[in-house]
Amino acid sequence: MSLRHAVLGLLSxxxxxxxxxxxxxxxxxxxxxxxxxxQLYGELGRLADAGFVTVVAEGPRGRxxxxxxxxxxxxxxxxxxxxxxxxxxxxxxxxxxVFFLGVLEPEEARTYLRRRAEAADENHRNLSExxxxxxxxxxxxxxxxxxxxxxxxxxxATQRDWAEWAEQELDRIRKPQGASES
Amino acid sequence: MSLRHAVLGLLSxxxxxxxxxxxxxxxxxxxxxxxxxxQLYGELGRLADAGFVTVVAEGPRGRxxxxxxxxxxxxxxxxxxxxxxxxxxxxxxxxxxVFFLGVLEPEEARTYLRRRAEAADENHRNLSExxxxxxxxxxxxxxxxxxxxxxxxxxxATQRDWAEWAEQELDRIRKPQGASES
DNA sequence: ATCCCCATGTAAGCGGTTACATGATTGG
DNA sequence: CCAATCATGTAACCGCTTACATGGGGAT
Lengths: 182, 182
Hints:
The structure is a homodimer. Chain A is mainly alpha-helical. Chain A has helices spanning about 5-10, 20-30, 35-50, 70-80, 95-100, 105-135, 140-175; strands at about 15, 55-60, 65-70. Chain A folds into 2 domains: about 5-80, Orthogonal Bundle (Arc Repressor Mutant, subunit A); about 95-175. Chain A has a 3-stranded antiparallel β-sheet. In chain A, a hairpin with a 5-residue loop joins strand 2 (about 55-60) and strand 3. Chain A is elongated and about 70 Å long. Chain A starts with a helix and ends in an 8-residue tail after the last helix. Chain A binds a DNA duplex through helix 2 and helix 3.
């Protein structure tokens, strides 16, 4: 149930409409907690029912501006300090495929790992670009967002290095210990 | 829809019952693709309907032994070589919290990051232990399982290092560039 | 006999994705 | 006036989690 806390977190910086929040999700939280329009409006309704947010203004086109309440702030704080984060990579179909590499031809397995390294490297480059773009901005979200971005950079680098190592490892597996050529 | 391919992958090593598969999930795939009993039996039924597996034997207590079919093997192969793996860490409530570290007292934020480092280190130690346990075993699942385990080791180490870096970074954020003490 | 393990199944609920649906307002 | 954008909402579906439910068979 993190979407609700993502919303509370964003509203803790100031009031916003569902539409505003959606934009913020797209530009700044997209890489850590993507949310769809559908989900967002639903959650805002539930948050209002629970008393964690209230409608503070109504604008044109039925626009509703929400603000966080004291109860909402308390809930956000509780989530931040008391709730243990869920393990990051609990499910990975990328690693699941690794378990079954044995059913592939050696060449196919190699290609798979090679592609993992390339994909990781591409992600890494994209994040590097993103860092340049967001390097200004002294608001809280930007400052801590860069901290999260650093995680992404390190993570993708690790992923790339592992995939390259694993590709090497394939040879070791097929040509075991004592094997000498010729 | 990776559960079905996890099942196909396991059955590609030989026939097994739902119960057998459940045990294998618990001991070897638990860290990459956990599955519950409930899910597993449902999926086996659907796989049979789709013609990817068949019941090859019935044992005591209603036990049904499933084997993969040629169509199942083809589907497994297709999934392995053609389907792009989904990005590993698409959602992270651990990183989501990082975005909102600004709402906490400096001391609380520091505690949060410290705990991340500790948790990562603990995971790292657990995986190191696991590696000792599974270091034998020359079957395909063990060999490639160790490759996946190496990913876990590198990943948890990166996570720990990042959290330690981020904790340092907190100071830099609160005491900006030109600030001198006294 | 009894207890533990083997063994399979069903149902409710939750969060997320995709698609559908509608309409107002503003800028060129 | 027309298009793009603002703006909110509903419904169907899918996979995962938790809990419930039932019963047979082997070991001591």
